[in-house]
Amino acid sequence: MVLQSSFKSCLPLSCLLRAPRAGFGGAASGGLIIQSLSNDVYQNLAVEDWIHDHMNLENRQVLFLWRNSPAVVIGRHQNPWQECNLQLMRQKNIKLARRRSGGGTVYHDLGNINLTFFTTRKKYERMENLKLVVKALKALRPQLDIHVTDRYDIVLDGQYKISGTAAKLGRTTAYHHCTLLCNANKAVLSSVLKSPYKGLKSNATPSVPASVKNLFEEDPGLTCEMLLDAVAEEYAMQHGIDHHITLINPTDETVLPGINDKSKELQTWEWVYGKTPKFSVSTCFNMVYKDSVLDVKVDMDVKHGRIEACDIDLPQEWLPPALCRELVKSLTGSKFCPNETTALSSILLRTCPQDYELHSKWNLLCENMTALM
Amino acid sequence: RKFTDKHEWISVENGIGTVGISNFAQEALGDVVYCSLPEIGTKLNKDDEFGALESVKAASELYSPLTGEVTDINAALADNPGLVNKSCYQDGWLIKMTVEKPAELDELMSEDAYEKYIKSIED
Description:
heterodimer; A: BirA Bifunctional Protein, domain 2; Enolase-like, domain 1; B: alpha+beta; CATH 2.40.50.100; six-stranded antiparallel β-sheet; 5 helices
């Protein structure tokens, strides 16, 4: 990481937890700016959880700056199958994370910066935070045509979304985080945020699609570092603190005790996929086998990411009915997951005679089934 | 009906408590778009997080007013989360639970005490 003009240092966060910033005795304008040394989405989300759970924000608010290597981040109550192209993400090694705040789905890469504003629940104020960001950007580049919408997006040139917002309200603390597109890969963004999955019915919170633009397209001289710095400077000014950024390592248990358990939890299948609100899949696909085209109809109910009920409607006798019944039985209760489906269908296939035609038909069916996941 | 300082209410009848959020809370939250509720049978301690409400404002955690076990959840909220705003004390109830430690009820605020409480925090 290139260190720029602002003074950055590594300090145990525990020290900063207790000692208020010198010279501003208990005033509500106190603040702390921290930046993550990691680009791992799970570690960074864990830092948010940690601050939310452990820091006392009565007299001091916190701004957290972070960037992630390629990842898709869905909101707390969203359905990843509805929101993104999971197959493409697996191919491109793009991670999927579910955050604890609400809102819609976003794509992160190193060309996007994330800002989290921590306050007490009482001082929670998204519009103020976003106005701060706009002020910072305008101080950097006065010619930028940017404004905050009533949906809490930041829009460039009246039509392009450059920032989206989400938030969480806890017991005593609250946080508001937002993205800011500097130089993200728009081609990848569009392709991964388009879901190929059909026939999904769910009451999960949907995303609101938007046309996006990078600030870099307005001014190629802009970098993420510059944007981070500008926001930090404005935050420091508004909170009456030094423009000093504390760097933190989100894997350091001495600074953030319990942090590694938090990032582990965010990576579990149970959290990422299992927290998906109940949904149903009702779809059909065609399979071409030798000279015929077969219609297959599939109905599934998925709860906590697992197949609760399953029905596969195949042309009669195309495959042994007993085998198909076994497939449905195996799928029921298993994860709605291509790896798990492939595994259980391979196991079933091994119980069958070595019949080339049977094996090819089976593999064809199972490939199509896993393509739904 | 009794209230917590986190703006949940609980109303106990025949040993079963019905839990919801107060009018102050639903107004502050804005339009609820999703209710995340626990499974029936979940055991909760007082102050445990039992779910979340997502509104246009934020995802907001829900805290159990008492210790007990979840006996029922309001299935109507799945398709109609707005009931929490429209009818927070009636049709917009969230969960029903057993009351394992009745003494905990005494620690909660009466309706009058709660009204005074929200006036004090509004300043």
